[in-house]
Amino acid sequence: MSDFTFWDIVRNLLTGLQWTLALSLVAFIGGGLIGLLIMVMRISDKSLLRSFARTYIELFQGTPLLMQLFLVFFGVALAGLEISPWMAAAIALTLFTSAYLAEIWRGCVESIPNGQWEASSSLALNPLEQLRHVILPQALRIAVAPTVGFSVQVIKGTAVTSIIGFTELTKTGGMLANATFEPFMVYGLVALGYFLLCYPLSLSARYLERRLHASA
Known about the structure:
The protein has helices at 6-42, 47-61, 65-78, 85-110, 114-121, 127-157, 169-180, 183-215. By secondary structure, it is mainly alpha-helical. It has one domain: MetI-like (MetI-like fold, Orthogonal Bundle), CATH 1.10.3720.
């Protein structure tokens, strides 16, 4: 195992795991903020905004995350600007996440009966006030489970960022496998790391879905 002990490998993988978690949080929070804006545009009564939001969602859902990473990382470099793998990964994964969250939340908002819009309009609320005070609080209960479930996909999506040199869990595992000549053990620990991050979220999504469905 070269000069690496088992605990050296674990310690290095934990560092990679921290970067995976950090990237996931940045992408999910940033994607949530942008996704909320795109969702509002998607349900707007202005056709130009709806068309822009629809194109945005279809663009990021219809192309592989790997290609989006390449376009951000190499495209910015071709424009004469320097960008780090961390920044490129954060931007690409945030945009990718925002498209999916916008569509998830749009479905949740549109599942609220039209009568709620009509009732709130009778209170002299404008569309944004209706959305904020009446529709979103109801849609939130529906959105919790699929949103938590999608966070698992965000975490697993960080593995792709290793291709542009971002040293997250998968990239760290690859370097350790080359250094120790113990790929089975190293990648087994990498898989365990992803499992420990994703499995609790999957359980939470299923639990929330059952509980919210029962309460409904």
